[in-house]
Amino acid sequence: MMFAKPVSTFDSPALHRLSRIAPLGDAARDLIALAVREPRRVPMRRELLIEGRAVPEPMLLVSGWAARVRILADGRRQFLSFLLPGDLIGLCRHDRPLAVSTVQTLTDAKVATVPDVDLPELRQAYAASNALEEAYLLAQITRLGRLNALDRICDLMLEIHERLALADLVQGDSFEVPLTQEMLADALGLTPVHINRMLQQARRDGDLEWRGSLVTLLDPAALSHRLGRTPARVTA
Amino acid sequence: MMFAKPVSTFDSPALHRLSRIAPLGDAARDLIALAVREPRRVPMRRELLIEGRAVPEPMLLVSGWAARVRILADGRRQFLSFLLPGDLIGLCRHDRPLAVSTVQTLTDAKVATVPDVDLPELRQAYAASNALEEAYLLAQITRLGRLNALDRICDLMLEIHERLALADLVQGDSFEVPLTQEMLADALGLTPVHINRMLQQARRDGDLEWRGSLVTLLDPAALSHRLGRTPARVTA
DNA sequence: CGGGGAATTGAGGCTTCTCAAGCTTAGTGG
DNA sequence: CCACTAAGCTTGAGAAGCCTCAATTCCCCG
């Protein structure tokens, strides 16, 4: 069941992220690598968790994007956060937990069931991942509360850049963002029309390019500095 | 050290909340009650946690209000969430954790150091408290992203009503809210001026009264229904 | 009685929304 | 290979919501 070399060196964005946010020994690494090898395929727009329903076993997003989403009574939609490869879904430390938000895939995705916490190293990785997720929620609150439309877009792109980099999914300063302008609007509390105009603005300003689904940040360091951003850190 | 009766029946809003969100046996109850008995007094506007610094031992807010806050480079302020009596501060399950946000007292407060998780019942209560806190963060994102100014105010007041009720701090539908309009603005992503106007609107609409620091919801059920709110639930 | 923080009011401007139409692109079936 | 379609992107014009600045009033506390 354990392939000393092959499994340990098996590489995937998800595994990459986890081993980067917390040091994983060989045992933990093998457990994750094994789980990642046989993911479940989930098509686009499918629900992985449903608000108010029981949370099943914890999952690891192996590839593709998902989002935590809330739908209002009148049909308005708010994306609460995006879930990227390597993110954990449905981790709970209490008994009989209920999902506090619906999670749905935004693209075709691969999802693995991960071992529940038994190994100290895994516990550590899960906890760090959890803390990071909280940090991103706080960043989202600040974006929505205090940034204007243009800065919201730029700030979110910087966050995605930072997160995808953890999973080794950034080349140069380019990365895939499978979001429509409408989805972006629902994440940033704006309308698609305004997103469109501000994206043009961002391009004119030389902050980013967006061709097809490939986003390129032209000078992430400068942009980061202009927005007063600091990368998320949860461990000393 | 253990006073069988006195300690077990010692009552405080904080203890009330914890025993309500997760069933506490006598042992857990005594541990908390004991901690709550000798709280540390913290004056208004003091920092309990500082973003980026190491997180000290976990604390329980025994009385008073605090808030998680983020200050932008240009001085703008965003309150990320409010912490009410019975809320836990600085719970982390990974090693050498760094605070992801600053926490500061909004009023004079009492804070107790709580036992780190060793008892299953405590672990359960802490985890449930944590899950609730996450639920409130998600609610805050939805408020900022998709509600207009008036609805943001009403929705937040309903949330505070719900949370204070857990700690037995609501009488009828009235409760103390030690917030200035400026603080409310910084929580809801608005300006004090606009908060002022919308509060008047809410009063005219017969949704709430706000005299001194006492808020009264005139018909919480109807308001809740109008906003499409559902109370936070994290455990089946 | 005076000082100071908080609440209130007014006027004008900017950001974002709404509604509505036209365009572009990728995928589909003839 | 070419309509045809549907989803997504783009543009325009006008309206609404919220902000800014500035002044005034209220109220608590010393």
TrEMBL record, chains A, B:
<dbReference type="Pfam" id="PF00027">
    <property type="entry name" value="cNMP_binding"/>
</dbReference>
<dbReference type="Pfam" id="PF13545">
    <property type="entry name" value="HTH_Crp_2"/>
</dbReference>
<dbReference type="GO" id="GO:0006355">
    <property type="term" value="P:regulation of DNA-templated transcription"/>
</dbReference>
<dbReference type="GO" id="GO:0003677">
    <property type="term" value="F:DNA binding"/>
</dbReference>
<dbReference type="InterPro" id="IPR036388">
    <property type="entry name" value="WH-like_DNA-bd_sf"/>
</dbReference>
<dbReference type="InterPro" id="IPR012318">
    <property type="entry name" value="HTH_CRP"/>
</dbReference>
<keyword id="KW-0805">Transcription regulation</keyword>
<dbReference type="InterPro" id="IPR000595">
    <property type="entry name" value="cNMP-bd_dom"/>
</dbReference>
<feature type="domain" description="HTH crp-type">
    <location>
        <begin position="147"/>
        <end position="221"/>
    </location>
</feature>
<keyword id="KW-0238">DNA-binding</keyword>
<dbReference type="InterPro" id="IPR036390">
    <property type="entry name" value="WH_DNA-bd_sf"/>
</dbReference>
<dbReference type="InterPro" id="IPR018490">
    <property type="entry name" value="cNMP-bd_dom_sf"/>
</dbReference>
<keyword id="KW-0804">Transcription</keyword>
<protein>
    <submittedName>
        <fullName>Crp/Fnr family transcriptional regulator</fullName>
    </submittedName>
</protein>
<dbReference type="InterPro" id="IPR014710">
    <property type="entry name" value="RmlC-like_jellyroll"/>
</dbReference>
